[in-house]
Write a structure and sequence with these properties.
The complex is a heterodimer of chains A (about 110) and B (about 120). Chain A has about 110 residues and is mainly β. Chain A is about 0% helix and about 50% strand. In chain A, the strands form two sheets. In chain A, strands 2, 4, 5, 6, 9, 10 and 11 form a seven-stranded mixed beta sheet that branches. Chain A has a four-stranded antiparallel beta sheet with strand order 1-3-8-7, with no helix packed on it. In chain A, strand 7 and strand 8 form a beta hairpin. With about 120 residues, chain B is mostly beta strands. The chains are: A mainly beta (about 110), B mainly beta (about 120). At the A-B interface, strand 4, strand 5 and strand 10 of A face strand 5, strand 6 and strand 11 of B.
Chain lengths: ~110, ~120
């Protein structure tokens, strides 16, 4: 049982490049989330999904897009990377909100 | 809107002493409250939660937290700290009665340093 798997684990992008971060969960969870973690700011919600085919904006959605075509996968896209998007990105999933979240191990992204 | 505050960036405690990591929250309805721990270069791990019922909740690794509705607080506690408890701790809240986002809002984190 792998839980929540994020790929890649590390990536360096040049300003203006695009990329997709993949989150996969094998727990049949309905809810999935993308957060970014920056020093002193905790985790901030980028986008989330309450079920297959649904997505919603979080606190800091600008510059990101997401898709949830399959229940087990939640993709985060950066259309045109900017240095301000340098961060550690965490995906999480939950069966129901009262159970809490299961987090992936994170993707460290540097935009130069 | 839901929000959570962790007023201390860092807490230092000697091994064997009790520890407290503070958290206060703001919601319009009733809260779901969570504590997570993050070890270096790892994802967040669930410690404990308050959904309803007893105000004192017990969680993993000997941690507990007390829900105080009048003070809107959910402080994390442990009777006797271990060096291995040194990590970054996050409090999180979900406003069940609110109309906002259906996701947890996290605090800024508190780094716990336990000295031998």
């Amino acid at each position: 049982n792998a839980g929540v798997t994020q790929t890649p684990k590390f990536r360096v992008l040049k300003t203006g490049q695009s990329m997709t971060l993949l989150c996969a969960q094998d727990m049949n969870h309905e809810y999935m989330y993308w957060y970014r973690q920056d020093p002193g700011m905790g985790l901030r919600l980028i986008h989330y999904s309450v079920g297959e085919g649904t997505t919603a904006k979080g606190e800091v959605p600008d510059g990101y897009n997401v898709s949830r075509l399959k229940k087990q996968n939640f993709l985060l896209g950066l259309e045109s990377a900017a240095p301000s998007q340098t961060s550690v990105y965490f995906c999480a999933s939950a069966k129901r909100e009262i159970y809490g979240y299961t987090f992936g191990s994170g993707t460290r992204l540097t935009v130069v | 809107a839901q929000s959570v505050a962790q007023p201390e960036d860092q807490v230092n405690v000697a091994e064997g002493n009790p520890l407290t990591v503070k958290c206060t929250y703001s919601v319009s309805g009733n809260p779901y409250l969570f504590w997570y721990v993050q070890y270096p270069n790892r994802g967040l791990q669930f410690l404990l939660k308050y959904i309803t019922g007893d105000n004192l909740v017990k969680g993993s690794y000997g941690f507990e937290a007390e829900f105080n509705k009048s003070q809107t607080s959910f402080h994390l506690k442990k009777p006797s700290a271990l060096v291995s408890d040194s990590a970054l701790y996050f409090c999180a809240v979900r406003d069940i009665g609110g109309t906002g986002r259906r996701a947890l809002t996290f605090g800024s984190g508190t780094r716990l340093q336990v000295q031998p």
